[in-house]
Structures are given as structure tokens and as C-alpha cells.
Design goal:
single chain, alpha/beta, Rossmann fold, 2 domains, 4-stranded antiparallel β-sheet, 21% strand
Length: 286
């Protein structure tokens, strides 16, 4: 499959729209009037300094937090009050900043849990493990083993307990579980945080491939500016819970407000030097 044309995607209706979203915790405004749109077949990155509201935004979009005001629309449907499990069922899947896997279970079992929202087996079928329950289990295992595990190159650890895996592999398993949810929009919260250079490059390749080969739209939060600028079609910049800039990576990178948010001064050349440094291979990196 050829990679989607970002220009053609931009002309289509947004798959996800965030409109004037506000979130408060007591007197603290985590989000203030946040608005942006995610076009189908694109990679959109949300960036900003620590405490800018990025994870709060993700938690609100995925249904863990309820906004004070504003609207979230998925393919034109208002999902602002839709419970988190229902959002997963219609096509929103996410990973977490802090790994949220079941450490005592195997890789395969963790991934299979991602399909739970789509299974039609009732309690009686499951207890007997007959008919529909057996057919669904066989189809699920086939899809997970032949498609997802192969795609993410984790066949060699499918029966290993998650607790025995390296941090980078656990991140990959969490992405696999999100893909098992059959998402239309894949939300990745800091997918390469804590990874070495080789692991980061592998994850960046998987993100590009899931968009190109599976047609999945990607929304990610990430601090690795080199990766963001290389992968993204659209970048949204948050600072103190507000959108201070958005657009193509090149224009965002040169925006004086973005420079001030990161550096405290309008030195565009210095920001560019930092971005190039972040993107360059580090001496001695694995």
C-alpha cells in the first residue's frame, strides 16, 4: 500500500476534532480553550514543555477525564460525554505514558485483551467455551499472531511474561495491545520515552508503517523533537494548557511563541540547533 498523501488527507473531513476544550481541577486550569483537528491518514504530534497539559488532553480525548466545557467529535459525532470503553469500541485506542500492562501475564494474553471491546461472546458462551466463543477466540488469536505480532517483530517473546521484558519491548507490547483494538485513531503517549537510539528508530518505523500499511491515523504526545519533526504532518504546541501554535513542523519550529515556550527567548537559531542535535545519532548510543 502506498503512503497516504498528506495534502489529500488535509482536504478530507477531520477524523477527530477538539473544539474549545477546557479542563479544570479545582482552581487549576489544565486546558483552556484547546482546539485542533486531526485529518485522516496523518500523524499529528502534540508537544509542549513539562506541565503544558499534553497528558491531560489525551486523558480527556480518551474519556478518562470529563472536560469542564468544549466538545470532542469523532467522525462528526459528539463523543464528549461518551464513556471510555465506548470510545475504544468506535475506534479510539491509546497507549500510556507509564506502561499499563499486566506484568504477570504473557505478551500474547496482554495483546488479546485489547480486543475485549469488540468481542460478542456472552458469559454463558465463555463458560462452555463452545460455538461463538471458540470461533471468536480462534479468529482473535489468528489475527494477533499473524498480523500484529509479526508486524511489530515480537514473535520471539509472545509467550514470555511481560515482567521479564526490557522497557523498550514492553512499550512495543503496549502498542500491540492498542492495535488489537482495531483503531481508526491510535493515540500514543510518549511512545519513545526512556528508549535508546536504536529502540527509538524502531518505534518511529513502526509508527510510520502503521499509518502507511494499515491506514491508521496517529495522534502522539512526544518530547523527542527530532522524531516529532521527522514523522509529523501536523504539530500542535501546548503551553500552560493553551494552544500557542499549530501547523506543519517547519512553520511550528520557527514560531517565536514556540521558541519562547521552550527557551524563554526568541532565539530561533538556537532552537533549530537543539532540534538538529536531538535528531542526530548520539555517540555511543546502542
Amino acid at each position: 500500500m502506498t503512503e497516504p498523501d498528506p495534502a489529500a488527507a488535509a482536504a478530507a473531513s477531520p477524523v477527530l476534532e477538539v473544539d474549545a476544550l477546557t479542563l479544570s481541577f479545582g482552581g487549576v486550569h489544565a486546558l483552556s480553550g484547546v482546539s485542533f483537528a486531526v485529518q485522516p491518514g496523518t500523524i499529528t504530534a502534540v508537544i509542549g514543555p513539562n506541565g503544558a497539559g499534553k497528558t491531560s488532553l489525551f486523558n480527556t480525548i480518551s474519556g478518562f477525564y470529563r472536560p469542564s466545557s468544549g466538545q470532542i467529535r469523532f467522525r462528526g459525532q459528539d463523543i464528549t460525554r461518551l464513556p471510555a470503553p465506548q470510545r475504544a469500541k468506535i475506534g479510539l485506542a491509546r497507549s500510556f505514558q507509564n506502561i499499563a500492562l499486566f506484568r504477570g501475564m504473557t505478551v500474547l494474553d496482554n495483546i488479546k485483551l485489547g480486543r475485549h471491546a469488540h468481542l460478542k461472546t456472552n458469559v454463558f458462551d465463555a463458560l462452555l467455551y463452545w460455538g461463538r466463543a471458540r470461533r471468536e477466540e480462534a479468529a482473535l488469536r489468528r489475527d494477533v499472531e499473524e498480523r500484529i505480532i509479526d508486524f511489530l517483530e515480537i514473535d520471539h517473546i509472545r509467550h514470555a511474561p511481560v515482567a521479564a521484558l526490557s522497557y523498550g519491548l514492553q512499550k512495543r507490547v503496549e502498542m500491540a495491545r492498542a492495535l488489537a483494538m482495531q483503531p481508526q485513531v491510535l493515540m500514543l503517549d510518549e511512545p519513545v520515552a526512556g528508549m535508546n537510539r536504536e529502540e527509538t528508530e524502531d518505534m518511529a518505523r513502526f509508527i510510520l508503517d502503521v499509518r502507511a500499511e494499515w491506514g491508521v491515523t496517529v495522534l502522539l504526545v512526544e518530547h523527542d523533537m527530532g522524531m516529532v519533526m521527522d514523522l509529523s504532518d501536523h504539530v500542535v504546541v501546548l503551553n500552560f494548557g493553551e494552544v500557542i501554535a499549530q501547523g506543519p513542523p517547519a512553520s511550528v519550529q520557527a514560531d517565536p511563541e514556540v521558541v519562547r515556550a521552550y527557551l524563554g527567548a526568541g532565539d530561533v537559531d538556537e532552537l533549530r540547533r537543539r532540534l538538529r542535535s536531538a535528531a542526530a545519532p548520539q555517540p555511543g548510543a546502542a
